[in-house]
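Morning!

This is the sequence you dropped in the shared folder:
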Amino acid sequence: MSRAYRIRVRESVNRVVRASDHVSTQLEVLGILPQDQMAELLAQELVRRGFERKANVLSRVEDGVTISVDVATGTVTVRAETETEIELEGLRQGRGDSDWTAAQKAMAEENLRKEVKQELDKQFDKRKQVLQEQATNRLEGVLGDVRRELDEAVNRVTAEALKQRAAQIGQIKELTEDPATGSLTIVVEV
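The structure's back. Tokens below.
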């Protein structure tokens, strides 16, 4: 006579889940001076604003968001990355029969194990989606400030390039600059 019994399968999984989002754009830097000089002026301005230089790429990390500017090409990349370690545990129960062969018992356990793993995978996917949304929200949160700051930097670089170019053309007789409005007036005697 066969007897029914309960089969329990417990699985525990530990994974590191990573999520990231990024956006890239081009800075519009006027070619007032040769490109290498404009790139150097931009690099100097960005260093003044807290960026670290590695060759032609300047970057800064704030609140888990990395801002990178390639001064040679004017490419700006803003990237938000996040990661977390997630540990999940799942349990499945099923029924077995004492008349089953070892292969049948193993197959029943394997089926339960697959069900547990599928459920854990779904839970990981949900957590990863939440993490992805957090990265995107963090990126969106800083984009406005980054855009404003880089526009200010480009304006300062343009002003400095205009001053240098005016000095190359002739003698600067008068220079007035209003930092609040960004206006610049240069009177040059040729």
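Headline: The two ends are 112 Å apart (CA to CA).

More detail when I'm at my desk.
O.
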